[in-house]
Every structure is written in structure tokens, then in C-alpha cells.
Amino acid sequence: MLTKDRIYFPNLNGLRFIAALLVIVHHIEQIKDIYGLPNNFSSSFIQIIGELGVILFFVLSGFLITYLLLEEESRTQTIAVKNFYLRRILRIWPLYFFIVFLALAVLPNVPMFVLPDYGKAEIYKDLSAKIFLYVFFLPNLVSPLLGVVPYASLTWSIGTEEQFYLLWAPLLKFVKRYRIALMFVIVFGYLLFARALFSDRTNFLVYKYEINAFWQSFNIPSMAIGGFFALLLHSNHRALKIFLNNYLFYFALVFTSIMLYRGVYFPHITVNDLPFPYLYKEFYSVWFGILILNFAANKNIFLSLEGRPIRYLGKISYGLYMYHPIAIVLALQTTGWLGSPSDAFLYPLTFALTILLAGVSYKYYESYFLNFKTNYTSIKSGDVNT
Q1: Mapping DSSP to helix (H, G, I), strand (E, B) and coil, where does residue 252 land?
Q2: Which of 28, 316, 342, 378 could lock onto 358 through a cystine, CB 3.0 to 4.6 A?
Q3: pLDDT-based confidence at 198, cuts 50/70/90?
Q4: Beta carbons of 70 and 63 less than 8 angstroms apart
Q5: What is the pTM of this model?
Q6: Are 62 and 172 in contact, with CB atoms under 8 Å apart?
């Protein structure tokens, strides 16, 4: 929905919440497994929904950020890169650094939050290097290189988002022609380099392991796929006739739901007898992009995610994502004390605590910084999350 003063796409807050929900369910089962409790973490559905929930976030980011930058360029004849960075800083940095502070300085010293096999000795090993990577927004290298830091390990995706932001505004500003082709170049260039990293021919690369660890988490193809659909919509491209229609939307909805439920890791290929773990993310990203496009711009679909509760949960989805491991452990400890560690108690309590933490954080902490975003905004969006 476009107006002179504001851009608002319906249903996308609801999709944000769904993405966060997938990640939360994945981590509930994972943390139950860490505690040695009965769990479903080995389920193919549980295994796949955590990462794909994050991939859905990435496609949403690519779609929204690309569309807003294109609209800014259309209305002001330029893209103010500095202001874009400042808006992203105000949205991302306060909560990111707060969670990192809690994970490194506070929670390791509170016994109830110390996970089995993740005591202070483990967390504070290579502490200077970990702090360096967190401060310079390379958290996606912490776990593969230095070990897991509970409660901050999920910030790998925030690092990927920040790396995307760093590149995207200048890229769109200076590449004004053949932008749709650029999206394809990004996707296939990424995949070609990923394949090269799986080949013995690149063994000459210094720090090949580190480069590969970074590349596996640098999900820019998913964001470029979101950007592709934003480009189609913003330019009213003739290809919209293919992607923006009810039949494809409902097929994509049913097909993607079945694939997720069955935990399908597809397509799956090997390179030199090693699993090549990239294509399935791009595969799902395309279907997510079709769903996002239709939820945002197809007025004829008979499905809405615009109810006030789900819109609110989408608005605080960043907090839901960042606080939920703390809430899971709190819920596990509470249900343990009550002698009722069953899922019938654990899941509702986890969701309630996550919503409480995220809601309080949004209202009393994050909103303070978000209020400054208007100083650097020429195109207002319908949601300060964007």
C-alpha cells in the first residue's frame, strides 16, 4: 500500500512473527536436548525450521529494504547511504549489543542460566577474539571458529544482516541499470564461489576454512531473491503477471508448508563426495519470495495476517528472536521446579515469557532509539521495524 507520505505492506508483520515462531520452536527442542530432557530435536521438521525461519527473515529484509531504497530514489532522485546506515544502526545495534553484553558478562555468572557444558571456562576461552568479532559484526564466525556462546549464538544472523546492509545501499545507488540481472549475478556468483570452496583446487587459499565458514552464513542470495521480487513490484514489471496471482500463491503456500512439515532438505547434491549445503536455501527463498510478494501486493488473496495480535507480535519480532533463548531457559527452570516439564506447560510459558521480554524491551528500550530514525528518514514506512 503506497501513499504520498507512507509505505505499508500488509501481512508482512505477520510473516515476521511466523519466522520468529519457527526459530523459537527449533530452539526449544534444541535446548531440551542440551539439558538431556525428552525432545524432538532429531525430527527432520524441527531440524530444518530453525534455519529456514531465519531464511524467511532474510528474504523479507531483501524485499523491504530494496523496495524502500528504490522508492527513496524515485522520490528524491538519490539514495542517502549515510542516512540508511544510521537508520539501521538505530534499529539493530542497541538490542544486539545488549544481548552480547548479557551473554558474555551477566548470564555466565547466574547459575540458572549456565547450560550444561557451557560454563564460564568455555565461554571465556578466547574471550578477546570473541569480543572483537562481536564488536565488528562478525558474530557469524564466532561459533565455527571459537565455539558456541549461549544466548549470543543466534546473533550470527544479525551479522549477516549487517553485512548485507553495508553492501546493499551503495550497490543500488551506483548500479542503476540491469538491477534484475544484478540479482541473478549475486545469486549465481555466490553459488559458484561456494562450489569452488568445496573443491580441492582452492586449497591454496589462506584461511580457506575461515572463508568457507563465513560464506556458509553469508546468505546474501536469499536477500537478493527478496530484492528481485521488490524490483519486479516497484517497476511494475511484466513478469508480475507470472508471480502475482492467486493460483501460484496458494500453490506456493501449500507446497512450502508440506516441504517444511516433512523437513525436506531439497535440492541436495554432493560435490567431490561432500554435501553441498547451499541450494536448498535458495530453493526455499524463491518460494518465500513468491509468498511475500503476494501477501504484500495481491489484494485478491483470501488470507490475512493483519489481526492486531499478530501485527503486534511481528512488530516486536526482533525482540522475540533475540530474547527467546533466555525465555526458554527460564521456562525450563520454572517447569522443573513445578515438577511439570511437559510441553503442555513449557511451550505456553516460553511464548509468554518471550513476548513479555520482547514487549518490555521494545517499549522501554528499543523505542527510545527508534524515535531518532525520523531524523534520517525521507521515505516513511508503515512499521518502524523496517
Answers
A1: helix
A2: 316
A3: confident
A4: no
A5: 0.94
A6: no
Q: Which residues contact 332 (CB under 8 A, 6 or more apart)?
A: 31, 32, 35, 37, 341, 346
Among the residues of 175-219, which ranges form H helices?
Answer: 179-197, 208-217
Burial label for 191, CB within 10 Å (0-12, 13-18, 19+), is middle
Return the C-alpha cell found at 125.
576461552
Give the end-to-end CA distance of the chain in Å, rounded to a whole number: 15
- What pLDDT shows up at residue 278? 63
What secondary structure letter does DSSP report for 2? Answer: B
Task: Read off φ and ψ for residue 6, nearest 5 degrees.
Answer: -150, 145
Instruction: Tell me how far the alpha carbon of residue 253 is from its chain's centroid.
Output: 20
pLDDT band at 279 (very low <50, low <70, confident <90, very high): confident
Q: Three cell numbers at 301?
A: 488473496
Nearest-angstrom CA–CA distance, 140 and 110? 25
Rounded CA-CA distance 112/330 in Å is 8
Q: Looking at residue 385, what is its pLDDT?
A: 46
